[in-house]
Amino acid sequence: MRWQDVLADPSLQNLPYKIELNEKGVIEMSPASFSHSRLQAKIAVQLSLQLGGEVFTELAIQTSQGVRVPDVAWGSESYTLMHQAELWASSAPELCVEILSSSNTSKDMLERVELFLQAGAIEVWLVEENGTVSQYDSTGQITTSRFAANLHHCFASH
Known about the structure:
This protein is of the alpha+beta class. The chain has helices at about 5-10, 35-50, 75-85, 105-120; strands at about 20, 25-30, 55, 60-65, 65-70, 70-75, 95-100, 125, 135, 140. The protein has a six-stranded mixed beta sheet with strand order 3-6-7-8-9-10, with helices on both faces. Strands 2-1-5-4 form a four-stranded antiparallel beta sheet, with helices on one face.
């Protein structure tokens, strides 16, 4: 299966969970919990307020291992202009954010970090529901982000 086939399939419209297409063309599904969905929205709002640009939720990004979908992503105006006519993003925006859940393994999440970085992201953040944020760039885990965004407001009433 190709991503355009997934988008055109009427039986896959309005699904209550995130779907991705792996490197073999197989659909992978991952349902989001209430708290995951809530945190995703809070992160999107904070990135929009603090960074401007464009914030995306569930953005389909072509990677070397199929189409992957970060929970939240941020792109500059130039990124948005370059990709706005595409059905899915042919490269990752500058920042991709994944919210961790108990079903995620460290190995799987680090693979996703690498896929988004290879696809063009400058940074990838892994966010735990307890407020811990791990940030990565092409050098590995970093302690200071290039992006002047603080997510502490996302966890104040969480």
